Amino acid sequence: MKNIDTAFRHVRSFTIVVIIACAVIVCFALYKSFSLVSNMQGKIYILSNGKALEAFSADRKDNIPVEARDHVKTFHSFFFTLDPDDKAIQANATKALYLADGSAKRIYDDLKETGYYSGLISGNVNQTITVDSVAVNVNDYPYAFRCYATQNIVRPTSITTRNLITEGALRNVSRSDNNPHGFLIERWNIIENRDLKTENRRQ
Question: How many CA atoms lie within 13 A of 109 on its CB side?
């Protein structure tokens, strides 16, 4: 009887240990399964040129500085990249004005009224811009920014390099095909736009 009683206690203890171990294993398996599903939902596969590229989704707040800088850079590239072609100028200006409010439209209208774009066309002048850096303050909303860039104005006889500094603020708006970053530039202002040097072109 003593052996039976001892054996029963041992079996009961062993059974309890096995049940607890199974419960721990099941809980761990469930935890890992939910973690794996959550991680897989955060992955995106993009098909490019027949190749599947893996990307990761993230919250907007994690990407605000990157998206804000790229939005400002894209706007300035459209606004200040000009060729001696009326349709090309209009196309770039339209793309730029989708990214900003009326403050940019007023500057565009002023340049148009003063004959700046007409002068580019008649003089066969093209203008390019290189954005050197964009400083964005994401601690306060709307996000204030300052853009530092360099312009190259190519004329038939010379190349002029200009320094450009602008500032403004970024407001959140809905994303669209015309505004993929979901920002709108407001209170945009040109602080400085002066010649740095002029070089004669070889004839």
Answer: 6
Number of domains in the chain: 2
Query: Which residue range forms the structural domain that includes residue 101?
Result: 59-200
90 and 183 assigned to the same domain: yes
Q: What are phi and psi of 192, to 5 degrees?
A: -145, 135
Beta bridge partners of 162: 151, 195
Amino acid at 97: L
In a domain, 50, yes or no: no
Q: What is the pTM of this model?
A: 0.70
- The answer to whether residue 152 sits within a structural domain is yes
What are the tens digits of pLDDT across the range 122-154? Answer: 999 999 999 999 999 988 888 999 999 999 999
CB 182 within 8 A of CB 174: yes
Q: Confirm if 168 and 103 have CB atoms less than 8 A apart.
A: yes
67 found inside a domain: yes
Q: How far is CA 17 from the centre of its chain?
A: 55
Residue 159: which of 125, 194, 193 has the closest Cα? 125
Q: How many Cβ atoms from other residues are within 10 Å of residue 37's Cβ?
A: 10
Whether residues 178 and 133 fall in one domain = yes
